[in-house]
Specification:
Blueprint lengths: L7 H7 L3 E11 L5 E11 L3 E5 L6 H8 L7 E6 L2 E2 L8 H6 L1 E4 L11 H11 L4 H14 L15 H13 L5 E5 L7 H16 L3 E5 L3 H7 L2 E6 L2 E6 L6
Parallel strand pairs: 3-8, 3-9, 6-7, 7-8
Antiparallel strand pairs: 1-2, 1-4, 4-5, 9-10
Helix pairs in contact: 4-5, 4-6, 5-6, 7-8
The structure holds adenosine-5'-triphosphate.
GO molecular function, one term: transmembrane transporter activity
InterPro entries: AAA+_ATPase, ABC_transporter-like_ATP-bd, ABC_transpr_LolD-like, Cell_div_FtsE, P-loop_NTPase
GO biological process, one term: cell division
Amino acid sequence: MRAPVSLAPVWTELRGHAVIRFDQVSKRYENGHEALSQLSFEVKEGEMAFVTGHSGAGKSTLLKLLALIERPSHGHIVLDGQPLAKIHRGGIPKLRRRIGMVFQDHRLLMDRTVFANVELPLVIGGVAPVERRRRVRAALEKVGLLDYERQLPDSLSTGEQQRVGIARAIVGRPTLLIADEPTGNLDPQLAVEIMELFAEFQQVGTTVLVASHDLPLIKRIRKRVVVLDHGRLVADVAAEEVL
Ligand SMILES: Nc1ncnc2c1ncn2[C@@H]1O[C@H](COP(=O)(O)OP(=O)(O)OP(=O)(O)O)[C@@H](O)[C@H]1O
C-alpha cells in the first residue's frame, strides 16, 4: 500500500511565496521617535494589500524600508527571498529596479515628454532603444495614455499625470509595486479609477502594496487591509472580510 501523500507543500506553492516579509521590524529615527514597532506581516506573490492608519502611523516609513530609503533599527525584512540587510549601498539601484514606486506628487520631469518620463527607468537600466520603445508603449497603453506620449506632463490633468507616474513605475516589470498615498491629490472619482488600476496590475500577477489613509476608498476596492496605529500593526483584514 502506498503512503498517503500530503498536499500541504503543494498548497503552499500554489498560494505563492512571500514577496514581502517583515519580521519584528522596528524603526527609530535619529531624533528618537519610534515610527514602527515590532511589525511582522507577509504579502504573498500576486497579492494586493493596503496599509492604512492615522497621519503619522508609520505608513510611509514602512514603504521607505522596503525601498531601502530607510533602514530598520531592529528586525528583518525579506524582499522576494532576499534579506534587505544584506544589500549594501552599491546594490540599492538593482533592488529598486525590482520595485515600482508611485508617489502622491508623481515626481515627473516637467520638461520631458510623457514618453521620456516613462522611458527613464529603462534608460537607467541599460535597456536597448527598440525594446524601450516597445515597453514604454505597452505601459502607456495599460494606463490608457498611448495617445499622449509626445505631450509634456503640464498639458495633462492631475489624474493623467498620476497615470504617467504609474506607467513609469510598471515599465520595468517590477516584482513589487508600492504606492504612497497615490490618490492624495485627486478628486474621489479619479481616486477610484487610480485604485482600480492598481487592482488590475494585481490581476495580471504583480504584487501591490498601497499606503492610503482614505478608508472609504479602501473599502470600495475590497483588498486586504493592514492597519497601523502609532507604528504598531493593530489589524490585518482579509479582502473577503472588508465591509
Ligand atoms: N526622517 C524622520 N525623522 C524623524 N521622524 C520622522 C521621520 N520621518 C517620519 N518621522 C516620524 O515618524 C512617524 C511616522 O511617519 P510616517 O511618515 O511614516 O507616517 P504616515 O503614516 O505615512 O503619515 P502621513 O499619513 O501623515 O504621511 C511620524 O511621527 C513622523 O513624524
